[in-house]
Write a structure and sequence with these properties.
Elements lengths: L1 E6 L5 H8 L5 E7 L3 H10 L6 E3 L2 H8 L3 E4 L6 H10 L3 E5 L6 H14 L3 E4 L6 H12 L5 E9 L14 H18 L3 E9 L11 E8 L2 E8 L12 E6 L2 E5 L5 E11 L2 E7 L12 H15 L7 H20 L3 E2 L6
Parallel strand pairs: 1-2, 1-4, 2-3, 4-5, 5-6, 7-10
Antiparallel strand pairs: 7-11, 8-9, 8-15, 9-10, 11-12, 12-13, 13-14
Helix pairs in contact: 4-5, 5-9, 6-7, 7-9
The chain binds nicotinamide-adenine-dinucleotide.
Nicotinamide-adenine-dinucleotide binds next to helix 4.
Length: about 350
């Protein structure tokens, strides 16, 4: 049995508790939130009557001595929560983003290493079946090596809360999903970025609701255009994608429409002929299922002493794309992305 304390009982905790309460061998032994009423409400809703409720993570860890902490707090509290978890010798599964600054990310990873605990991030887009299908398809070489990746993200949510108050909100709180997915799909490591942020005249955010970035992703170009303040023609939360390769392209609308075309012999006027090519379904053993899949992998990593796919020491490379994009937006210059050697 893996005993877990979940900290941060806000909006996102529902996804964690929906998944966690479906897993045999996992018990939620504590629920923590600065607002005790939120923690109590979750205990009631998920029938966790024996869970210890508290407003201080340290106090609940002291009382329950769990194996792991699930961190669902706001990004600004990530470091404090992580250091408490490792101080109590707990493994840590944390919401994205891994941290709210490069310094905090490195400090958290270093603390995990010193404690010898598993530390992973809920970078749940990797556990979306079509993201994995794209990676497998490109790996198969069916349309040659990818040369450029393009992602569009246009959604206009009214969240209220911390997002409307924070700086660089789109890059820090959302784009990490898209950047990590791009890195994953083409297996590339980021080398540089130029990024510009803007605030639409009608924006309800403090700063950074909209951004456009061009990355060098291991010799491939990755263009990102995104806005959290763009009413009309909403894209999927997973973004809308086009990946161009040496002998064809693949497009994904971020929902179910995943299509590829490959160059075939012959010409039609100016153009090489192309034909549709099937993107194979996933092997049933491949890992999907969002939060549920990630939590199960986290548990498996602890049991088997292996490293989970979304381990912090790898995820920091995706986070480096975010911080470099922010630096570029602030300075107006292209920024080199140093290899994270964590
Ligand atoms: N993976 C995803 O798809 C996804 C989607 C949405 C949000 N998120 C992430 O989930 C995290 C939480 O987002 P949310 O929408 O649930 O926010 P929220 O504001 O609804 O909830 C956060 C909760 O954390 C509590 N909290 C803050 N600091 C704390 C501390 N030090 N100790 C205890 N509790 C503390 C707050 O009181 C609040 O109840 C964020 O990092 C966000 O980026 C991830």
């Amino acid at each position: 049995m893996m005993n877990v304390v979940l900290v941060g009982c806000g909006a996102m905790s529902r996804h964690w508790l929906d998944a966690a309460t479906r897993i045999d061998g996992l018990a939620i032994v504590g629920l923590v939130d600065l607002d005790a009423e939120r923690a109590k409400a979750k205990a009631l809703e998920y029938e966790l009557s024996s869970a210890v409720i508290g407003t201080s993570l340290d106090a609940v860890l002291d009382q329950t001595r769990p194996d792991a902490v699930f961190d669902v707090v706001v990004p600004a509290a990530r470091r404090e929560v992580a250091l408490s978890a490792f101080a109590y010798n707990c493994h840590l599964l944390t919401e994205k983003p891994l941290a709210d600054s490069p310094e905090n990310a490195r400090a958290i990873i270093e603390a995990a290493r010193r404690a010898g605990r598993v530390h992973a991030v809920v970078q749940n887009r990797r556990y979306v079946a079509n993201v994995r299908r794209i990676r497998r398809f490109l790996e198969s070489g069916a349309i040659g090596r990818p040369t450029s990746i393009h992602a569009d993200f246009f959604v206009a949510p009214h969240f209220g809360g911390f997002r409307e108050e924070m700086a660089h909100v789109l890059l820090l709180d959302m784009a990490i999903h898209t950047f990590d997915a791009a890195r994953y799909m083409v297996g590339g490591e980021p080398a540089s970025v130029y990024c510009q942020e803007w605030e639409p005249a009608n924006s309800w955010y403090r700063q950074g609701s909209s951004a456009s970035a061009v990355f060098d992703l291991g010799g491939k170009v990755f263009t990102y255009a995104g806005s959290w303040c763009a009413d009309g023609f909403r894209t999927s939360w997973e973004s809308a994608w086009r990946i161009v390769a040496e002998r064809g392209s693949i497009t994904w609308d971020g929902h179910d429409a995943l299509k590829a075309e490959v160059v075939v012999s012959g010409r039609e006027g100016l153009f090489d002929k192309t034909a549709p090519i099937e993107v194979p379904a996933l092997d049933p053993t491949d890992r999907v299922d969002g939060h549920l899949g990630i939590i199960k992998d986290f548990m498996r990593a602890i049991e088997t002493g292996t490293e989970p796919e979304t381990r912090g020491s790898d995820n920091i490379k995706s986070l480096a794309m975010v911080f470099a994009a922010i630096e570029s937006a602030e300075t107006g210059r292209r920024v080199t992305i140093a290899q994270e050697t964590q």
